[in-house]
Amino acid sequence: MNARRHPLTILLIVAAALLLTACTVAVQPLPGAATAQPASEAAAPDAPAAPASEADEAGQAAASDADLYAELLANSVTDTGLITTHHMGERWFLEIPADLLGRELFWYSELAEMPASFVGVAGLQVGSRMVKFERMNDRIFVRDLSDPLQKRSTLPVEPGDQPTSEEKQEQVSPAIEAFSLPTVLAALPIAGETPDGALVIDVTDVFASDLTDFSAVPMLGMSGIQVVGAAPDRSFIQSIKTFPRNLEIRSFLTYNVAGDISSTSVVVSHSITLLPDDPMMPRFFDPRVGYFTISFDDFGATDAAGSVVREFINRYRLEKADPGAELSDPVKPIVYYIDRNWPDKWRPYIKQAVEDWQVAFEAAGFSNAIIAMDAPSVEEDPDWDPSDTRYSVIRWVEQPHENAMGPNTHDPRTGEILSAHVLVWSDVLKLIEQWYFTQASAIDPRAQTLPLPDDLMGRLLRYAVSHEVGHSIGLRHNHRASQVFTIEQLRDPLFTAEYGTTPSIMSYGRFNYIAQPEDGVTNIIPQIGPYDRFAIHWGYTPIPDARTPGEEWPTLNAWAERQRDDPFLVFGGEDLASMVDPNVLTENLGSDRIEAARLGIQNLERVMGHIVGATTYLGSDYSKLAEMYDAVLGQRYGWLAAAIKLVGGVEEDRTLAGLGNVEFHRVPRERQQAAVAFILENLQTPQAFLAPDVMDNLAAFAVTSSLADQQHGLLDRLLSGFRYNLLAEQAVLDPANAYPLVDYLGDIQAGLFAELQDPAPQVDPMRRALQRHYLSVLAQQMQAFDGPSDPSVTGAAAFLHSDGQGTDLRAAARYNLARLAGALEAALPAAADASTAAHLADLHATIAELLGGASPENTAAGQP
Question: What's the sign of the alpha-carbon dihedral 91, 97, 101, 106?
Fold first, then answer.
């Protein structure tokens, strides 16, 4: 501690100014009050003792602290809690108790309020850090402990010992502490000390500014608004509330818009929470079960040379009230508050969305583990705030943003979820209505008239929110799950009555578009499924005999091994492998990509039959028709694109070494060829989606461009360099199953130019454009084939961004284009109309230019 204390002079200056005048005044010390020592003149810790006169002055200053503090209390609004707060005019002061210095705190901030034009960022996290308060002379430093947590050392526990809190969380070791220097996030000036030794700090200027590590600027940029630093004359602390374990600060910040003469204001909420003194024992991550994680480099690993990356899962701390019971209430349940803004008609569905997860927690041995409650009214609790990290909240955000999210805040030491803020934007109702109309109205008469009835809309909202609650309790997407059920199972009313549409609500399976009207299927909305119960059991079931995360592993592995015998429990995540696995998909259902798409498109054709009646009424415009027509086309495109994923596809059997078969399997050639044939069949102009009663009411022109663009997009997916690379690699690794590129292009070309086999070829306008696009794509790829490559782009990135360099593309293209030239020449005289004849002649001339006039001798006339 410094030889000279800092009295509460600043506080009394402000108090005097407030009492004397409302104008800005030059701040001068009160007569007889000791002045605070400037930071630049702070005594070093090892400075020699002060002379007697200085010691007397310091003693007098210390003696006056009590009087000044009493006067502070008399002239401010004071609130007590974890950190006592004082509010005097525009100034805010905090008392940092001596026993809070050095303790671990969690600092979380989010955008709490913003202008209406800032769409999609309300309630989103601005930043989060684990921090501690540390005194440095006449300031309190806020030190960032988050980055040091990225380096840890596993500490062994001797048999029979009980692990300490540090051992539970794989704490930072002294050996690496020197290389984990905590950054200073903020410096808060000390105004003085209280009689009981608490440090009084002035936080006004710090929290009335845009903090570098908790800046709202990047978030505002997400809404397309580029701003510069906060304007201090128009920024201030809106409020500070203190509670037993946390402090809530709301900063009103005004920014100047870059390159403009306008301004914008936002409110950033900061929550500083005392982390548990006894950290929860973490649980190691297993790639076979989808949890969000925290990760760190373990420098104390005994199972590898050097450091290894470890991960802990994110989960709430659930402990049984009766540890010996097979099923017990938790000591502290997970409680979600439904915030005050929710329309009353949706509240019962949101409550059910939360409590749907109770069945999953029962699989982990907990009854009543997760419950939903209405937020207290303003009269019941005026201090209740949805951004308060003590509360898990489901928030209704009235902005034109079609989305919902389920983020959580968690202890960066252990992964313990501290709270969750599920965000539901009001326009998600529009999105789920689109999904249900396009996917389900063929078999659900309720959806053949819009808007959907409230009871159905509430059920759909329940599904969407339950999915987001799943994220908030730690679960990642499981996009493998929606491809598990067979087509036969999804068309079976008894099977779907029990299991719904997918083994996991954490997939993007949506609604049962595969069932046909004659099947009699009625349970077509996702529900908590077998995988969800399995995942919660794996992540939340207590293992009482384990004292460390490592000791839990044998039990956890045995639980995960259940997947080998039960396909309903498999997991597939959002990673590199998912990019090529046709069994890991979004917005798709069923284990057979081709049959699922065929049945789905068959239902979409039925939807086209009632789309006009569903979306219009007497005197309405056709905007809803246009919206739903685009949604129908989007569904068709997505299902066909999923079938293309079979071409060059690699299926993952997620396992660990020594526990199963090989991890990756390449899709057999016959399945790839079937997918190509199916896509080419659907690249015929789909007249069902060009119905006159729809097209003639959409717009005066450009009404066919969406469908034409999607047809071109599907062809682009077939002709991508990424696809060529996958096929080339399969030819090396699995030659018996290979689909040679020359055959692949030949199959595409034969289907794309199928009209040439007709006695009198006739090619419609959309097909003519598609055939020209085929030649254009190959021309660009052949031109780029010998072009320079970026040596810095290697591995997966090279696969993704290639035009086919290093494959047989050019040879395969030349060979097949020469064959096509012969077929065009043979078909040209028999063309059924002048437009077709001109088109065929143009294609022939284009190919001649591409091939430089060469035509191989083995060209087979009549075979495109």
Answer: negative
H or E stretch including 257?
Answer: strand 246-257
Q: Quick check: is 249 in a domain?
A: yes
pTM exceeding the 0.70 threshold for the entire prediction: yes
DSSP helix/strand/coil, 594: helix
> Final residue of a domain: which of 274, 289, 312?
274
In 119-245, which residue ranges form alpha helices assigned H by DSSP?
165-168, 174-177, 204-207, 217-221
Owning domain of residue 78: 9-145+182-274
Q: What averages of pLDDT result for each successive group of 10 residues across the chain (864 residues)?
A: 40 42 30 35 42 53 65 84 92 94 93 76 80 94 86 53 48 65 91 90 93 86 76 92 92 85 88 93 96 87 74 97 97 97 97 98 98 96 85 92 90 94 94 98 97 98 98 97 98 97 97 98 98 98 94 95 94 88 96 98 98 96 97 98 97 78 88 98 97 95 96 98 95 94 98 97 98 97 82 75 87 97 96 98 97 57 60
Residues whose CB is less than 8 angstroms from the CB of residue 785 and which lie 6 or more positions away in sequence, other chains included: 803, 804, 805, 809, 810
Task: Please report whether residue 15 resides in a domain.
Answer: yes
Cα distance between residue 748 and residue 726, in whole Å: 16
Token reading at 488: 């036969």
745 in any annotated domain: yes
- Find residue 336's DSSP bridge partners: 372, 392
Token couple for 264: 């914008």
Which of 233, 253, 274 corresponds to the end of one domain?
274
Structural domain count, the chain: 2
